[in-house]
UniProtKB/TrEMBL annotation:
Protein name, UniProt field: Sensor histidine kinase
Domain MEDS per the UniProt entry, residue ranges: 12-159
Histidine kinase/HSP90-like ATPase domain location: 201-310
Top-level lineage group: Bacteria
Taxonomic path: Bacteria, Bacillati, Actinomycetota, Actinomycetes, Streptosporangiales
Keyword Cytoplasm carried by entry: no
Keywords assigned: Kinase, Serine/threonine-protein kinase, Transferase
Length: 314
């Protein structure tokens, strides 16, 4: 595959592949050439393809493959909102003065309808998060396993597209439209879902409520404490930034414990919670912590108010 690839500046292509051979043809040269050039390289793809690429890379360059950071995106990127701060920025920021190469595959066959809008928004937000950085982020898309919507959205969230035969500029590139388009009202909470209106005086009751509902949903003690911490951060954020009051609700949804916080605030910054915390700046860690703790975060925000829904797997 003889594609021209930018060697400086921000480069964020989608790679459409069909089958393992095309996956390797598209990804292996990107990784191998980076290693041989001395660039820091990371690969974050789902487990089976991760093992495939590791094996092929070791066959080509031997022990030099150990210089690559390999991550199972199925675990590291389970929550799409955590991928930018916890996977991409976490690696790129360790090498601020070098050309960084990353393969990231956040959308794969098996991602649920519940997860997909957050995945598409994540891909769009990469462009805002890395503008001006000397970073190449190659995003593989399984053209056999994914539906037409995912492939069409890839063309809207990536300025450059690749397949086995060619490279071309995307005529449909419109990342802001994808972020806005998936900022949709969430499905209604169950009518019988317990809820707790809150203000600052009810903060401790919210923590107790979260622990109680986590246990009722079957979360382990450890995950229950994670849920309590995430809910506490959302409630505090509502009190400080969302008008001083809100409503906390909780319920079970299949094998997930769900917590929802509604308030009258508006999250105007699309990258809120997706920037690594600056150790020299107080605050700004609430939504970031929520993104780290939860298995999935869905947000609907307008000038009239914000709903944040967080999910924890049992």
């Amino acid at each position: 595959m003889g594609h021209s690839r930018r060697t400086t500046g921000f480069w964020h292509p989608a790679l459409f592949y069909r089958g393992e051979a095309q996956f390797l043809d598209g990804c292996l040269p990107f990784v191998r050439d980076g290693v041989l050039a001395g660039d820091p390289v990371a690969v974050a793809v789902p487990g089976a393809r991760l093992a495939l690429l590791q094996k092929a890379l070791r066959a080509e360059i031997g022990r030099d493959a150990d210089r690559v950071r390999f991550l199972d995106m199925g675990r590291a990127g389970r929550n799409p909102a955590w991928i930018i701060p916890g996977v991409l920025r976490d690696f790129a920021d360790r090498h601020p003065h070098e050309r960084v190469r990353i393969i990231g595959e956040p959308i794969w066959h098996g991602r649920s309808e519940l997860e997909y809008p957050a995945c598409a928004q994540h891909e769009a937000l990469i462009n805002m998060a890395f503008t001006g950085r000397d970073v190449a982020i190659l995003c593989p898309y399984d053209a056999d396993g994914l539906d037409g919507r995912a492939l069409a959205d890839a063309a809207r969230t990536h300025p450059v597209l690749l397949d086995h035969d060619a490279e071309w500029d995307s005529d449909d590139y419109a990342p802001e439209a994808v972020v806005d388009g998936y900022n949709r009202p969430l499905p209604p909470a169950p009518a019988d879902a317990p809820n707790l209106p809150f203000d600052w005086d009810a903060f401790e009751r919210c923590r107790a409520f979260a622990l109680d509902r986590a246990a009722a949903a079957g979360l382990s003690d450890e995950r229950g404490r994670d849920a309590e911490l995430a809910v506490s951060e959302l409630v505090a954020n509502s009190i400080v930034h969302g008008g001083g009051t809100g409503v906390l609700a909780a319920w079970r949804e299949q094998d997930l414990a769900v917590f929802e916080v509604r308030d009258s605030g508006h999250i105007a910054d699309p990258l809120a919670g997706r920037r690594p915390a600056d150790p020299l700046t107080p605050g700004g860690r609430g939504i970031l912590l929520v993104n780290r703790m939860a298995d999935l975060v869905r947000v609907h925000t307008t000038a009239a108010g914000t709903t944040v829904r967080i999910f924890f797997a049992r």
